[in-house]
Design goal:
NAD(P)-bd_dom_sf, alpha/beta, NAD-dependent epimerase/dehydratase family protein, 300 residues, Lipid_A_modif_metabolic_enz, 38% helix, Sc_DH/Rdtase_CS
Amino acid sequence: MSRVLLIGATGFVGRHVRVRAAAAEVEVVAAARSPEPGGRELDLAAGPAAIAETIADVAPDAVINCAGVTGGTPGELVRGNVVGVANLVTALTSASAPVRLVHVGSAAEYGEVEYGTPVTESAPPRPLGLYGVTKLAGTELVRAAAETALDAVVLRVFNPIGPGSPGSTLAGRLVNELRRAGTDEDVRVGPLTASRDLVDVRDVADAVLTAALAPGRLPVVLNVGSGRATRLRDLTALLQRVTGSRRRILEAAAPGSERSSGVAWQQADIRAIGRALGWKPATDLTTSLRDLWAETVCPG
């Protein structure tokens, strides 16, 4: 049985990787800054020594890094997305046995792209916000190590959606608003003119696990997306149909998320990951939203 050390196991993507791994009979050692019962406490920003000790103790076939910081102060973003990755890379390059690293990156690293043209892994990254800048720095640390000794791949995940979507995402926030009982108030959001590549989080977890277990070296960066661009306005309309809610969702003039503000359109080119891993998305957007709504209405 293969064994993986899953860092960031309590997060949105990490939780689904655990479920997928269990179904595939892959042993997972879960680690996080605030672990659940039975998990290991591990803060990547604390230094490479603690990470190296954990790796030596677990002796995994692969390390999956789903940890990261999506918001906060510049210092918090740098600590979580740059310093932590640097420490992990340092620990892995000094490990006594080779271990593959699967690092979860972000489409925010690309920033603004040419409208209507799916973005490939060779596109020059131009992140617009500090989140994208720090995620790109983490990717470049992994890339540099992979050019010398480290067996590593960065999966640039576009916009994960589905059960467990946090309230910091558009879908997660809307579901939380629409399920509030005893109110018929309008729901107000920022502009919905942008288009995003929305990929089910369970498909993302499958890609992560497949990359961890695949034989041979992989391309250093691979996109993980649906391969489709969806207008956020269409997303909200579909969510209203799925939920049956009659509450209006109104657009305000307020700016959107700092992570994606200024990016009008993004769609992943996913041909490379198909060639490298045989992976392709399997879940349509309606199913993602229906399962998100069902989980929220009937938690657990």
